[in-house]
């Protein structure tokens, strides 16, 4: 799986927990995350897993030309980073930094079954 070069804290797990057989290698302007399932998968078998990583805003966060006080987060969500994989169902979550305000979502050429917006707080997060 190809992930951006500025990604860190990569995490790969399935329903049982962390899978420690994964590894990461540099590959030009990207990183190559090698994922090995916990068990061998034979033809027709299915599995599910979670891949997570953190990105710095460099290359994704831009000033809005019409309003310099606002920033736009531009990220290509689709276009599978994995070759030769069939993905029946995918969930993509984007977590914006504390203090960010959701202003809208624009997407082109893709039909989503559903789009949900939620807010989550972590340790020491507060609003006020």
Automatic annotation (TrEMBL):
Any GO BP annotation = protein N-linked glycosylation via asparagine
Q: What is its main location?
A: endoplasmic reticulum
The record's subcellular locations are: Endoplasmic reticulum membrane
List UniProt keywords, sorted A-Z: Endoplasmic reticulum, Membrane, Signal, Transferase, Transmembrane, Transmembrane helix
Q: Pathway, according to UniProt?
A: Protein modification; protein glycosylation
In Pfam terms, one family for this protein is Ribophorin_I
Output the Gene Ontology cellular-component terms. Answer: oligosaccharyltransferase complex
GO molecular function of the protein, one example? transferase activity
- Segments spanning the bilayer are 47-62
Report the membrane topology from the UniProt record: Single-pass type I membrane protein
- Out of the domains of life, which is the source? Eukaryota
Annotated InterPro entries:
Ribophorin_I (IPR007676)
Q: What does this protein do?
A: Subunit of the oligosaccharyl transferase (OST) complex that catalyzes the initial transfer of a defined glycan (Glc(3)Man(9)GlcNAc(2) in eukaryotes) from the lipid carrier dolichol-pyrophosphate to an asparagine residue within an Asn-X-Ser/Thr consensus motif in nascent polypeptide chains, the first step in protein N-glycosylation. N-glycosylation occurs cotranslationally and the complex associates with the Sec61 complex at the channel-forming translocon complex that mediates protein translocation across the endoplasmic reticulum (ER). All subunits are required for a maximal enzyme activity.
Q: How does it assemble?
A: Component of the oligosaccharyltransferase (OST) complex.
Membership in a protein family: Belongs to the OST1 family.
UniProt protein name: Dolichyl-diphosphooligosaccharide--protein glycosyltransferase subunit 1
Q: What species is given as this protein's source?
A: Myxobolus squamalis (Myxosporean)
């Amino acid at each position: 799986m190809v992930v951006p070069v500025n990604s860190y804290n990569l995490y790969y797990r399935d329903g049982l927990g962390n899978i420690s057989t994964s590894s990461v290698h540099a590959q030009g302007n990207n990183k190559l995350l090698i994922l090995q399932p916990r068990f061998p998968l034979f033809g027709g078998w299915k599995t599910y897993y979670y891949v997570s990583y953190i990105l710095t805003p460099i290359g994704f966060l831009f000033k809005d030309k019409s309003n310099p006080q606002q920033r736009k987060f531009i990220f290509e969500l689709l276009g599978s980073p994995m070759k030769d994989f069939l993905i029946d169902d995918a969930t993509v979550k984007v977590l914006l930094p504390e203090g960010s305000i959701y202003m809208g979502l624009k997407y082109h050429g893709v039909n989503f079954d559903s789009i949900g917006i939620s807010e989550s707080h972590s340790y020491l997060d507060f609003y006020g």
